[in-house]
């Protein structure tokens, strides 16, 4: 055993990585999880009523993307839910394209149902997943979005786009 106990505690950590604090090891606080959940559900209402703008679509992209990466971290890349994530992603892309082209934007009930199920999944994830894992999922999503922004035209196929990130 080393004479320096601090050195022993950091032995398993990657260089330059700080130890996880209590706040990072616990799930989000209930008030914060409810506030984020409310934002996501209000975004769904705006989408359902045809009142969603770019900010609403962005909020839903972030929620669904983070939910997907968290889901993959626990269930792997191949699961029965993966097609739901891909369908939701395609529906959001189509809606965003309608907005960008200045056309009236609408989404069908089936796609809205997929989105709602995934927002509910993300609600559960936010209530139970340690904060450091939520942050990791958001960072992965951010890297994917940065990569997509550098492309001439982001892929309409979310599975192919996400595969390139891995």
Biggest β-sheet strands, sense, barrel: none
Rg, Å, rounded: 18 Å
User: Helix fraction?
Assistant: over 70%
Mean pLDDT value: 85
**Uncertain regions spanning at least 5 consecutive residues:** none
User: In angstroms, what separates the terminal alpha carbons?
Assistant: 39 Å
Order of helices and strands: HHHHHHHH
* Class per helix and strand makeup: mainly alpha
Structurally, the number of domains stands at 1
Instruction: Supply the number of helical segments.
Output: 8
Could you say which overall geometry the principal axes of the C-alpha atoms support? globular
Total strands: the figure is: 0
Strand content: under 5%
How would you describe this protein?
By secondary structure, this protein is an all-alpha fold. 70% of the residues lie in helices and 0% in strands. The protein has helices at 5-9, 22-25, 30-48, 54-75, 82-100, 109-128, 131-150, 158-165.
């Amino acid at each position: 055993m080393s004479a320096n106990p601090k050195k022993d505690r950091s032995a398993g950590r990657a260089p330059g990585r700080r130890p996880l604090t209590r706040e990072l090891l616990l799930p989000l606080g209930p008030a914060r999880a409810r506030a984020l959940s409310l934002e996501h559900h209000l975004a769904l209402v705006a989408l359902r009523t045809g009142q969603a703008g770019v900010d609403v679509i962005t909020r839903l992209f972030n929620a669904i993307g983070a939910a997907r990466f968290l889901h993959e971290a626990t269930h792997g890349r191949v699961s029965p839910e993966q097609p739901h994530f891909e369908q939701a992603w395609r529906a959001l892309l189509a809606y965003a394209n309608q907005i960008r082209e200045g056309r009236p934007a609408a989404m069908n009930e089936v796609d809205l149902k997929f989105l709602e199920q995934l927002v509910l999944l993300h609600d559960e994830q936010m209530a139970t997943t340690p904060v450091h894992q939520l942050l990791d999922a958001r960072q992965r999503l951010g890297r994917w979005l940065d990569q997509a922004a550098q492309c001439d035209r982001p892929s309409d196929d979310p599975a192919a786009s996400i595969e390139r990130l891995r």
